[in-house]
Amino acid sequence: MAKRLIFLGPPGAGKGTQAEIISENHQIPHISTGDILRAAVVQQTPLGKQAKDYMNRGELVPDVLILNLIQDRLGYEDAVNGWILDGFPRNVNQAAFLEELLAKLEQNADCVLNLEVPDEVLVSRLLARKRKDDNESTIRRRLEVYHQDTVPVIDFYQQRSTLKTIDGDRPPEEVTEQLCSAIV
Ligand code: ADP
Predict the structure, then answer these.
(1) Phi, psi of 131 (to 5 degrees)
(2) For every one of its 184 residues, what pLDDT tens digit does the chain have, with 9 covering 90 and above?
(3) Which residue minimizes the CA distance to atom 23 of ligand 1?
(4) E strands of 34-179, at which residues?
(5) How many CB atoms lie within 10 A of CB 128?
(6) Would you state the pLDDT for residue 172?
(7) pTM across the whole model
(8) Residues 64, 143: Cα–Cα separation, whole Å
(9) Which CATH class is domain 3-178?
(10) Are 165 and 178 spatial neighbours (Cβ–Cβ below 8 Å)?
(11) 57 part of the active site
């Protein structure tokens, strides 16, 4: 069974919700860069202080802050036998970094899962969620950044590994079912 999974998809696609379920089912850690950054902001760590304004504007946090974080996190003992990456990689530079890091760790991503949801649906889902960065202008900016920086990551994986696209515009249980059957 696949143990090293990358979840791709726009903000509001349901990556976090689905990753949590699959993480429990497979007993592998759910590594969400968004969750790690939000915790750093709350704790007012140096990382949090540097990341906060970017997050509130809906911009990506600079790669220099994210790459070390991922390198450290994949080195934890709980990540030796598997993981789900949610929110990383978010641009091609991050994807290339991950590829090199995994080669050094002698690991391979087993499966890249791409959750697809139309923009109009995403906007209404995110507005309903009411997280601090979920106001309309930030949401629009996050979607723009997604199309500009993250969509090229889909092509990156299409050329390299098993990328599977799942329709995320369905009830959560159906999405979970589709994901489970996509993870071989
Ligand atoms: P969403 O997918 O709903 O936008 P996330 O929790 O994944 O939410 O991310 C929230 C914010 O954290 C992003 O808008 C961005 O500012 C920052 N962030 C998360 N992951 C990354 C990453 N890999 N690279 C750069 N910034 C990131």
Answers:
(1) -75, 165
(2) 669 999 999 999 999 999 999 999 999 999 999 999 999 999 999 999 999 999 999 999 999 999 999 999 999 999 999 999 999 999 999 999 999 999 999 999 999 999 999 999 999 999 998 888 889 999 999 999 999 999 999 999 998 878 999 999 999 999 999 999 999 7
(3) 88
(4) 83-86, 111-116, 163-167
(5) 9
(6) 97
(7) 0.95
(8) 22
(9) alpha beta
(10) no
(11) no
How far, in whole angstroms, is CA 167 from its chain's centroid?
16
Asked whether 113 and 164 are in contact (CB, 8 A), the reply is yes
Q: Pull the structure tokens for residue 40.
A: 């750093």
Q: What is the pLDDT of residue 2?
A: 66
Type of residue numbered 92: V
Query: Which residue do the tokens 């994807």 mark?
Result: 95
Q: How far is the CA of 33 from the centre of ligand 1 (A)?
A: 6
Which residues surround ligand 1 with Cβ inside 6 Å? 11-12, 33-34, 37, 54-55, 58-61, 66, 87-88, 90, 94, 142
Contact 71, 16 (CB under 8 A): no
131 is catalytic: yes
- In this structure, what is the dihedral angle of CA atoms 73, 65, 36, 85, given to the nearest 10 degrees? -60
